[in-house]
Amino acid sequence: MSLTFFRHLSIQSNDLGKEATIILTFDGDMKGLYQDSFPVVWKVSTFGETGPCRMHATYTSQLAVSKPQVVDGNIIGAETAIGINNGQRIFLTEDNHVFHFSPPHVGTPGVVQVVNATGAIQDIAIGFISDGYLMPQPALYFKEVGSTITAAFNPILRAYITSDYQETAILQGAIDTPAIWEHNLASLSESTTLNLHRDPATGHYTITQA
After folding, report:
1. Which of helix, strand or coil describes residue 187?
2. 57-75 per-position pLDDT tens digit
3. Could you give the 3-state DSSP secondary structure of residue 103?
4. How is the beta sheet containing 41-47 ordered, strand by strand?
5. Separation CA 185–CA 206 (nearest Å)
6. Residue 186 DSSP SS3
7. In what order do the strands lie in the sheet with 6-14?
8. Distance, CA of 103 to CA of 69 (rounded, Å)
9. Are 77 and 109 in contact (CB under 8 A)?
10. What average pLDDT score do residues 14-38 get?
11. Exposure letters 108-140 (e unless 16+ CB within 10 A, then b)
């Protein structure tokens, strides 16, 4: 079993020149994206036109599975959740309208498997455990699961400039603006600071390592 790691990200700007909103989401290319699974917006932060601005985000590699509560396309909480690692399988059951995840069992190496044993279609989310949060942070949402989901989650994070989404929104399709930054968090150092720039001539935004 691999050790849990943390990644502390800071994105900063100074006199950006125009107010801009950044969203962070794990929507890297993966099989079945926007068909079987849907990314969830992780972080949203607005950077001011003038002066210094900064956002922080902390990722932990301890994965978790939850039975999400969804309202108007946003995950607002979870009815139950449990930590899980790659190579493990768990079962979701229901008794008297109370949902429960089994302890993790040995599964298929490299993937997380969730078996819906409730006898009815259910929604399931895969995410990660964060300090200070009672429930996991959702990263991928699986809608109307009838039997089993198998997911290979890699922490490929992308940053976009857009004000169209809020935190925990479920993305039903690809964001219609190009990502300005992409990285597998596993390959970063524990703490990383990034600079957000705007080219006043073109209006294009870039993120570079500080």
Report:
1. helix
2. 999 999 999 999 999 999 9
3. coil
4. 41-47, 20-25, 156-161, 181-184
5. 18
6. helix
7. 52-60, 6-14, 191-198, 205-209
8. 21
9. no
10. 92
11. eeeebbbbbebeeebbbbbbbbbeeeebbbbbb
